[in-house]
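Dear colleagues,

For the upcoming journal club I promised to circulate an example of a predicted protein-ligand complex. I picked one with adenosine-5'-triphosphate because it came up in last month's discussion. The inputs are reproduced below in full, followed by the predicted structure.
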Amino acid sequence: MSTELNETQTEAAQSPAELGGATTVGETDERTRAEWVDHEFDGDAKIAVEDLNVYYGDDHALTDISMEIPEGSVTALIGPSGCGKSTFLRCLNRMNDRIGSARIEGSVRIDGEEVYRDRADLVELRKRVGMVFQQPNPFPKSIRDNVSYGPRKHGDLDTTFLSRLLGRDDVDEEASLVEEALEQAALWEEVNDRLDDNALGLSGGQQQRLCIARCLATDPDVILMDEPASALDPIATAKIEDLIEELAEEYTVVVVTHNMQQAARVSDQTAVFLTGGELVEYGDTDQIFENPESQRVEDYVTGKFG
Ligand SMILES: Nc1ncnc2c1ncn2[C@@H]1O[C@H](COP(=O)(O)OP(=O)(O)OP(=O)(O)O)[C@@H](O)[C@H]1O
Ligand SMILES: [Mg+2]
């Protein structure tokens, strides 16, 4: 293969049609340019993804994704349904490992350490890289038990009957951990007088903030959120959005959303995925929404398709 051909291939990736599958209605046949996903930022990359490809059986769900995600910021992932946003998110803490048909190639490094190395400790990884899903999924247990579930499961808190009997329990530690996590998730004021109530009695918005508190209680570095507010009303959504911005002071947040205004409001940088599981453009959120380089991205963010 000639050098010239190699350069052409890295400069311009395949067109949507060549990526297999129909072009989404309204998308042009534009070729993606490598520099459109080259997002420059100050400081360190918390997450570095290189040549990531994901297949479900014969379906190619993500195609040659390379991007670096800065520490202590909010990164929004947007794009039409089926373009691979959830798949990408699940690659970051190896949740796709649980899907039998999924095959992952390429590299994901967090703090420089390869997530896909042999004998990686997946329990530790998912503690460091927590996840919040679209539907709030609290356990049918008390509010307190939901928050302290992770630390107890990982052996960081011992509140068993035997330890209480022996006076060697961590009940006080549990109380302060629960309060801190609920404070951080902006839920403490609403629930501090009913920590023993069943979490399923909370409203949807409260349940989602409880799930965020549960995630924070395991002391993660990175928080992945897959459409965390799409099942909520506008007031609950506004609370989650405020929370996301606050969390970025301490954590690296990666959030999938279908809501463009939400991405524009809460994120520092935005990655746009389009047909064929291709990352088409990635950059400062203002630039992506106001002056994107790709015509397809412009059509998408202005609502021409998707
Ligand atoms: N568990 C799975 N098994 C097989 N195929 C899957 C699985 N999960 C996702 N896919 C396929 O991979 C592609 C990307 O799906 P994914 O759920 O990542 O998209 P998405 O961008 O999150 O979509 P949405 O906006 O609808 O949530 C789709 O074609 C989907 O059908
Ligand atoms: Mg999804």
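Two points we might discuss: The chain has one domain: 35-301. The two ends are 37 Å apart (CA to CA).

See you all on Thursday,
B. R.
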